[in-house]
Amino acid sequence: MSPGTASTPYSSAPLPAHARVVIIGGGIVGVSIAYHLTQLGWRDVLLLERKQLTSGTTWHAAGLLTTLRDTETQTRLAKYSQDLYRRLESETGQATGLIDCGSIQLAKTRDKAEEMRRGVNMAQRFGIDCGEIAPAEVQRHWPLADVSDLAAAFHFPRDARANPTDVTQALAKGARHGGARLLEHTSVTGILQQNGRVTGVRTDGGEVRADYVVNCAGMWAREVGRLAGVDVPLQAAEHYYLISEPLPGLHPLLPILRDPGNSAYIREEAGKIMLGLFEPIAKAWSLDGIPQDFTFGEIPADWDRLHPYIERAMQRVPILLDTGIKLLFCGPESFTADHNYLMGEAPNLRNFFVAAGFNSLGILSGGGVGFVMAHWLVDGHAPMDVWSVDLRRTQSWQNNPRYLGDRVVESLGIGYQDHWPFRQWTTARDVKKSVLHDRLATAGAVFGESAGWERPNWYADAGQPRSYRYSWGRQNWFANSAAEHQAVRERVGVFEQSSFAKLLVQGRDAARVLNRLSTADCEVAPGTAVYTQFLNSRGGIEADLTITRLAPDRFLVVTAAFTQTHVESWIQNQIPDTAHCVVTDISGAYSMLNVQGPASRALLQSLSPDDFSNAAFAFRQCREIRIGYQTLLALRLSYVGELGWELYIPTAFTLPVYDALLAAGAAHGLKHCGYHALNSLRIEKAYRDWGHDLGSDDSPLEAGLAFTCAWDKPGGFVGLEALLEQRGRGLPRRRLVQFLIEDPAALVYHNEPIYRDGEAVGITTSGMYGHTLGGAVALGYVGHEAGVSHDYVNSGRFEIQVAERRYRARASLAPLYDPGNARIRA
Predict the structure, then answer these.
(1) pTM for this one?
(2) Which stretches does DSSP call E strand in 95-233?
(3) What does the pLDDT look like over 708-748, one tens digit per residue?
(4) How many Cα atoms within 13 Å fall on the side-chain side of residue 654?
(5) 4, 17, 111: which is closest to 61 by C-alpha?
(6) What is the mean pLDDT of residues 347-370?
(7) Which residues, listed in sequence order, are joined to residue 459 by a DSSP beta bridge?
(8) In what order do the strands lie in the sheet with 582-585?
(9) Please, is 794 exposed, middle or buried when counting C-beta atoms within 10 Å of its C-beta (0-12, 13-18, 19+)?
(10) Sign of the CA dihedral with 736 first, then 742, 747, and 753 last
(11) 26 near 169, Cβ under 8 Å?
């Protein structure tokens, strides 16, 4: 694989004084964005590359174009890239080296086969040609492969491979033809900004003013982000492949073999075999920053570390064990903490965008990323829901080099590991702990991690191992979580939820600002909470949260921990310059204990002199209460469908309040409950979860949340016009529906296809076992061109496909548990 082509005639062109957009980085992603911007009509596009196009990591990529990925977003980006690269040569006249060889993914275990069957079901819903084949069929495609240990295999005949350098040059040619300027040997040394908005870049050749700047600097994106004061948490790691000596019987149309059980992929390379590794224990590279002069570079290979992985991977094609190795290549690639990309506008600098951290999938996703980012710039929003790769899902603490260095050891290989339901990261843990962490550990908590927080997912019994045993069936904590679920339904449970983000929004214009953002009417009396969404201008849901009015000029906004950066920046960016409104993160100042269940009132009343009766403390009311010597806020809300209160406790008061709850709780059957139980309880009640059931492409009308909309409030709200237009068209053509699987043995998680009368009509968004309803419960969007009515839902025969089997399911637009909300208002 050669390190690119010679510099273009444009390399020495003079630096312009202004460009509409400056793209930093000449790898495939930056060039693809330039290409797609010109396709959308932007001509004043400037790309700056510090050395030569492809000289960072693009040049040494393996060029695999395999469509099935871990998430819907990544799968759609990969499919778009494939389609684009197929037509690039005829469009630009530049060869891309694309070979339609197909790919085969191998499953060594029954569990991996189950995972792949579920993944194939999802992929087929997105129009990807794929299906299961027998091991003997694998050997027919790949005569040199050993298939004796396979449980199953899956063929993707439209998958392909391409030459990364040639694809990049084809995109560059198309971009130049559309008017873009691509300048090599031009380093960006600073980011210009004013009043919270990017205004250009400083280079070693002078300044360029710009309306937009896009950071596509690959491994250097973290350093470029620092120039702008923007966190881009990624880290380079050693990434290996080897190329064998020539072997007989090889040809370019041999399918790519993806062999997760051996952490490897295998493909033909000019009559030789390329074997690439995604080892489960990797090694970070250059923790102190990427050398500025690193160009078309290699890292000295660590044979001793890689030998066990290489030997194991070679067993798939045993002839490799007796064949010489022509090249063992180690080149750096950048990886992120959760193995998802970093894309979108920076939360703290307007018009500064990032597209980096592609976890060795930059070629595969580069075309789709260019399409998405170009539309994001031109239209002001992404053309599809890309939350799973949005930069705003990250938080500033994740830019810590030690954290990234420790996490990348695991994240490099995670794509080739088993993607179990509820799988927990094992590296870079214990970033954030609540003050109750040790108390909860003593109570048996088994912790998971979200946004750095250690949170109790379930509670082990005395003597029970405090660890997960993963499977696609009922995992080892199933009975524990069932008991927690039952306690909340029948008695009372306590959830430790201090991780939730708490934002204090205050000032004389705070009510006006929040009311403009919220679907609900925030002009309520102090001491009142509202459940609301924030919408974009298209009517899509950007946030799902509660707002409590503490005083005429002071509000408490509570949202999930993983949405904190997004929600905080969404509010900040929509505060008018002339408004008196300040947002303060007070998450660490308060703990939160959530006391839920029919006995919650009796428990709290036994601890406090304050009145918890229905008449004195109505649903959605917030009061300052006393427990022992401590004073705290109690908010009557529920995310589980029962009577209950959220207790917001000043951190210094948390331990004595918790101890008092536990001491009094024994008489009321109080039980510690974890996030798995919280999830099963909320899904039974059909409560939605943003990021799963709700997102930027889902409207309140589709999601069954129109009741939150104050249609006639003065001044309206962001997205109202789009909702009115949608409402005027009649019944929504897609709606969120709740399903109860009739077979109590079945389990659903998400992304399972939904069928009505044998026709595919949707896909599930979340699922969990409903211990009260007696079966697995799922939420999912159902589509119908004539509109999704109650009659359409009630009259259909619905099935949910789980792996290779379809299960009958009861469908309902109303919650199957307590549809009248009697229990939460008791």
Answers:
(1) 0.97
(2) 103-107, 131-133, 152-156, 160-161, 181-183, 188-194, 197-203, 206-215
(3) 999 999 999 999 999 999 999 999 999 999 999 999 999 99
(4) 22
(5) 4
(6) 97
(7) 445
(8) 528-535, 541-551, 554-559, 501-506, 582-585
(9) exposed
(10) negative
(11) no
